[in-house]
Design a protein that fits this description.
Blueprint (H helix, E strand, L loop, with lengths): L7 E6 L8 H10 L3 E6 L9 H8 L15 H8 L2 E7 L1 H8 L6 H8 L4 E5 L3 H5 L1 H12 L3 E2 L3 E4 L5 E5 L3 H15 L11 E7 L3 E2 L5 E2 L6 H12 L3 E7 L9 E6 L2 H11 L5 E4 L6 E3 L20 E3 L3 H7 L7 E8 L3 H12 L3 E6 L10 E8 L4 E8 H16 L3
Helix pairs in contact: 1-2, 1-8, 3-5, 4-7, 8-9, 9-13
Pfam family, one: Flavoprotein
GO molecular function: ligase activity
Cofactor: Mg(2+); FMN
Length: 407
């Protein structure tokens, strides 16, 4: 931190068209109380000029190691940083970082940094999927760097695919979580792990305009996804009817009904180390779907809606683990006898952990905060006091890591 107590962040910017989006990331970092030094590559200045970076950060900008030599910037900047984030990180920058090259100020900074490092890649799909890039990414992750998976969307020109820079707001959230953990000297303990998370609430259609649903917003599942990315995991997020921006670094699979969620989760869980079922999955669905809107008839009560059971996805995951040592976590939303009902559900479902919380019209659903108890199949109980949903997410991942480390 600097003399004012602000965390020191180095924002590296590579020479890609997405460089202009780094301005928004810089603004988020500075406005939230971080002291940010921008270190662009020479090619990055073709997209956003030196004056812009200097004005937004309040610091001079340099790309080479021969400027202000008396201050030894190629060593000092990295040594003093609390976090280095490279956004966008081009294929060239990833390659130079993986191979330890030091031919400009940014690569020198990466070599001297002893703080957490985050890369947010952006490039065309073919470049991202090339074996050389994949090997470079694997090398950086093995060394402890957090390499955020790029988003899927419109790229330069008419191309569409995986390789788009994630939303700067979401990259900021990853940086914030990494900084919080880095302050405690915590390594990315989910590095090399694939985790699957379900979020949101399923909707079971009655007719083309109506459905049976629930109040789940998906915020807890998204907090779990963001936290897992910051801890180094490869994240698949199965999102049911959410209106939230995609978490940076997560592969998002969108679903609507319980049957669609089951299919997506089972497919993603095939190679997962852990599956966290945070979604509110409907227990029942209408036995019959009306092809046309169900009309109100004057003087007549509506026909009763017959329901049938949906598959129990959590129990299915628990009873037929896709791979040895896979950890399965469930969520239980209860309105009364919370712990007793939670313990009964844990035994019935057969999962390793069950997060139990009390819900109601003004509790949990849609809120920025949560309060819960994490129950373990070993009889343990870990209470989590009311606070941000990401705090509960960290507690869940702490427990998951403990179980995975026993393999």
């Amino acid at each position: 931190m600097d003399i004012t107590g602000k965390p020191r962040v180095v924002l590296g910017v590579s020479g890609g068209i997405a460089a202009y989006k780094a301005c928004e990331l810089l603004r988020r970092l500075t406005e939230s109380g971080h002291d940010v030094r921008v270190v662009p590559t020479a090619s990055a200045l073709n997209f956003v000029g030196e004056a812009t970076w200097s004005a937004l950060s309040g610091h001079p900008v340099a790309t080479g190691v021969w400027e202000s030599v008396h201050e030894v910037p190629h060593v000092r900047i990295g040594q003093e940083a609390d976090l280095v984030v490279v956004a966008p990180a081009t294929a060239d920058t990833l390659a130079r970082a993986a191979h330890g090259l030091a031919d400009d100020l940014l690569t020198n900074t990466l070599l001297t940094a002893r703080c957490p490092v985050v890369f947010a890649p952006a490039m065309h799909t073919e470049m991202w999927e090339h074996p050389a890039t994949r090997e470079n990414v694997a090398t950086l992750r093995r060394r402890g760097a957090v390499v955020v998976e790029p988003a899927v969307g419109r790229l330069t020109g008419k191309d569409t695919g995986k390789g788009r820079l994630p939303d700067p707001v979401e990259i900021f959230e990853v940086c914030r979580r990494v900084l919080a953990r880095g302050a405690a000297g915590t390594e990315p303990d989910l590095a090399g792990r694939h985790v699957v998370i379900s979020a949101g609430g399923t909707r079971e259609p009655l007719d083309p305009v109506r459905f049976l649903g629930n109040r789940s917003s998906g915020r807890q599942g998204y907090a779990l996804a963001r936290t897992a990315v910051a801890r180094g995991a490869r994240v698949t997020l199965v999102a049911a009817n959410t209106a939230l921006p995609d978490p940076a670094g997560a592969d998002v699979v969108r679903v609507g009904t319980a049957l669609q969620l089951r299919e997506a989760v089972l497919k993603a869980a095939a190679d997962a180390d852990a599956v966290v079922m945070a979604a509110a999955v409907a227990d029942f669905r209408p036995a019959h779907y009306a092809q046309g809107k169900i009309k109100k008839q004057e003087g007549r009560d509506p026909e009763p809606v017959a329901l049938v059971r949906n598959p129990d996805v959590l129990a299915e995951l628990s009873s037929a683990r896709a791979r040895p040592g896979q950890v399965v976590v469930g969520f239980a939303a209860e309105t009364d006898d919370v712990l007793a009902n939670g313990r009964a559900k844990l035994a019935r479902k057969g999962c390793d952990l069950l997060v139990v919380n009390e819900v109601g019209e003004d509790k949990t659903f849609g809120s920025e905060e949560n309060e819960a108890v994490v129950l373990g199949a070993d009889g343990s109980e870990t209470p989590v006091p009311r606070g941000p949903k990401e705090a509960l997410a960290d507690t869940v991942w702490d427990r998951v890591v403990h179980l995975l480390d026993r393999e």
